[in-house]
Amino acid sequence: MQDLFFELFESLPRQGPGLAACTARALALCRGLLAAPSVLDLGCGAGAQTLHLAALLPAAHIVAVDLHPPHIQRLRAERHRQGLGGRLEPQVADMRRLRDERSALGLPDGGVDLIWSEGALYNLGLAPALQLCRDLLRPGGCLAFTDAVWRRDDPPPELRAAFESDYPGMGRVEDDLALLRAGGFELLGHFSLPDAAWWEDFYTPMQARIAELRHRHAGDALAQALLDSLALESEMHRRHGDGYAYEFFVARLPEPHAPLA
Asked: How many domains does the chain have?
């Protein structure tokens, strides 16, 4: 059944909520970027936001990493199609090993100028993920990421159960802001993704793809049961989308103060 799961998600424009306009808005909050910044996209998926960043930062060098090889293969094909050449380097890599593999991945020794991650840092737990980003960034470098957060203290039991199975450490915006402060980051801004970010490139194409797969796997009870469970995600958002959000956080790693003369 894992093959069916990948058959669904590998075909989607995005593997999670996001919108080109939100990527642009978050990038505009990044202060002090160099004219030709080094960028690391953590957990890039098939690379929708990676390609937006490449368009918005035409002089940047972007390393995009994901653990799932088909996502990287798809992004490499798109890199070739768009003629991005050496500006974009999609790599199969585990986020947990980036400290040891940074030179092999082509990350600069002095630190990365901008780390980007849409919907992926939770896989490490946010506190360890922020420490990883701190280790990889140069002083003065920026971090932009999205994270699922609760909007209500009392979400419906079915909604809480759905998130606790995948993200048991999910908190509120205030909790993420506290972790950023504890990690030594300076907040540059944050905003909630609009509802369109859930539907345009994610749930709407997901629903269409589920319908195709239902037809393809007609008569397969196990496949139909899995597709039923996957279809519940968008229905849960339709019913309870006011109880949670994806929040875009943009922060900066401060530069050390110069010693007094």
From this structure: 1
